[in-house]
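Exam revision sheet. Question 4 asks you to relate a sequence to its structure. Input first:
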Amino acid sequence: MVRPEPVLADSAGEIPPGARARLGVDPLTEAFAARRPTHWFAGPPQPVDPQATWSALVQHPRTTRAIAYVHVPFCVSHCLFCGFYRHSAPGGFSAPYTDAVIREIEGEAGRPAVAQGAIGAVYLGGGTPTALDADDLARLLKAVRACLPLAGDCEITVEARVHGFDPDKVDACLEAGANRFSVGVQTFDTAVRRRLGRRADRDTVIALLQSLQARDRAVVVCDLMYGLPGQTLDLWLQDVRTVLDLGLDGVDLYALSMFPNSGLARAVTGGHLPAPAPLGGQARLYAEGLALLDGAGWRHLTQAHWARTTRERNLYNQMSREQTPCLAFGAGAGGLLHGYRYTVEGDEATYRARVACGEKPLALVTPLPPDLPRRARLAASLESGRILPEVLEAVAGPGFVQRLAPVLEHWQAAGLITPDPGGPRLTPAGWFWQTNLIAALHDHLSAC
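Answer key, structure tokens:
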């Protein structure tokens, strides 16, 4: 039997090309040929003079809440799937690097853009923040709390790797004020973990998570990754069920991204690992995970994140998606302030040298589009899994929803959204293809 060719749209004149989904196919696996990024820039932004621009920016007080990001770019080992590896963790690196980051934070603490306006969430990311020594983790967290204007309910997250996150480091983080741990698990399956360069086995991973929960002093969430080489549907379901059985506060389900020239790409190309799941296979795995978590009553906060308990707020990630001002510290960190995006010097040795000279060691500062706030609201509105007419009208002006009606009707016909009195809801297929829908809304806004 010959399968009919998919139909792209009922009325090509009414549906912009970027919004057109295939009709008459499985919407979960075939609605689009590829996932679209959600960037809406018309072209690459032009860099400006970093130091002169920064000196002017930090003199203007913030009038809104912000987030803070502290980057620790060291890893004990290089996992095959990771595209963010920068520095190994040689002996003796911890104290000098921590000294430099604290000095950077202290040097910026009195600036109006830093000192004025509450900070709602702090994230220590990497790399592997827990590669730092216990004393240095504590010093860094205490400096953040002493120097930055944290809100009373500030979420303070430490990103952790299982290997090397011993009880002394856990307790040091808690005593210094951390109230949320995000543990990079990816998979509980020992064989898959070992193939990807993860050192801890299933029992060790579970034991760490249980020990964090037993302290009952911080929110505990973990990452799972779908589409990994050798990861079957049964293994994936076992991973998600393990999270359910543990009763963690939250979980992220992320699709594997195979970066060009990464260790994973070379291993697959060389025949040392099986190929990862194709896009359609990833879609099926995501939908199965979604069904398990939704069926267990977990709250679906964003495309990739679920919460079981009310104390899991996922504040940093949600505020970041809303393009909230971000104060960034540490080699390679990225931030956003007063309509500019900036990157801190990424070479660790150069970073430390520039901090020692009293600089804010910036590598790049670029202006953002003037309509960033409304586009951020547009994207953030879809993170809830709903297309809310009142938000679209507030962002794009009266009549936007009416002009968008043919697109919404098309998405409904394609199985991506379903009608709801408060505004269309994403179906499981719509959740998987969410970035395509957000990108299409940006296209439509640009055309108005």
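Marking note for examiners. Residues 323 and 376 are 6 Å apart (CA to CA).
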